Amino acid sequence: MWLWYNDHMDKNFTDFKLDFGTEEQCIECMFKLRWRWGYFCSRCGCDTYWKTSNGKYECEKCRYQTSITTNTILHGTRLSLYTWFYAIWYISSSNKRISINGLERELGTVDKKTVRKMFKKIERALLKFNAKNLQGIILAKKITITTPDTKKVDIFMAIEADSEQMKLCFEEDSSVKTFNTFIDNNVEKDSTIITSYEYETEELAQNYKFINETAIDEKVWENIKNEIEKIILSNCKDNYHVRYLNNYLNDCCIENNKGKEKSDFLKLLYTFINLPNDEI
Ligand SMILES: [Zn+2]
Questions:
Q1: For residues 249 and 227, what is the distance between their CA atoms, to the nearest angstrom?
Q2: CA pair distance 74, 183, nearest whole angstrom
Q3: How many angstroms is it from 42 CA to the middle of ligand 1?
Q4: What is the pLDDT of residues 158-174, one digit of tens each?
Q5: Distance (Å) from CA 35 to ligand 1 centroid
Q6: What's the mean pLDDT when you consider all of the chain?
């Protein structure tokens, strides 16, 4: 058995085991996630089926057989659904930096090449998950950070007050105009933005409410800046190059944002199952 109890596994693992501990439970969940409005035959659209002895779904009308993974991101996988679900749970609940090596250790008996492929697929779901815009009350401004090569650079940051999910972006030209574009790309319309007056342009004022940054204690801004600097430093020490700063910032956001929302695992699983399969 490749699954064993580990330090990082807190009581959430008990919950996971309870809901997804058997292959049958995982299949049931997969069924609900891929056929949200009930089964339908992908060939003729018929919505009634029977199950074959080898676990496939056979259309009552045209006899077309589908497995639970056919045409999904897991099409043709030789691994059990439980292995996939566990990998997704592990990635969504790990407090440490997500790494292929970590996943490899967790999945013990699965060979390295397969783990690598799994990781790449799950990473796509993470990226998609992270692409979601912030909403509600947002703290946003330009901050100057010290990079691992001790240079000072200006980056834009936006943090959702409720969840502390964040977006970071480095632009060579950190003008009001680029700040506006940053907000436009990362924050849902009608959100409230706490920021410096200088960024409040007519264009943005049409879509967002503004509160001046002085509404928040200067120390809070300073703490946020320090926190972000710390996350960046711990995430991109090796081979740091300013050319890749936005890649590092993106990694930092993924790292920071996962686990900030409740039932992160289910959301990630849902995003994952519904990824298009680009290999078929
Ligand atoms: Zn059919």
A1: 13
A2: 35
A3: 7
A4: 999 887 889 999 988 88
A5: 15
A6: 85
User: Whole-angstrom Cα distance, residue 256 to residue 260?
Assistant: 7
pLDDT band at 4 (very low <50, low <70, confident <90, very high): very low
Contact 174, 154 (CB under 8 A): yes
What's 237's DSSP letter? Answer: -
Which pLDDT band, with edges at 50, 70 and 90, does 237 fall under? low
Answer whether 248's CB lies under 8 Å from 48's CB.
no
Q: Where are the domains of the chain?
A: 11-130, 137-257
Q: Could you tell me the CATH superfamily of domain 137-257?
A: Ribonuclease H-like superfamily/Ribonuclease H (3.30.420.10)
The helix (H) or strand (E) run that includes residue 219 is helix 218-235
Ligand 1 centroid to Cα of residue 56, in Å, is 13
Q: What is the CA radius of gyration of the chain?
A: 22
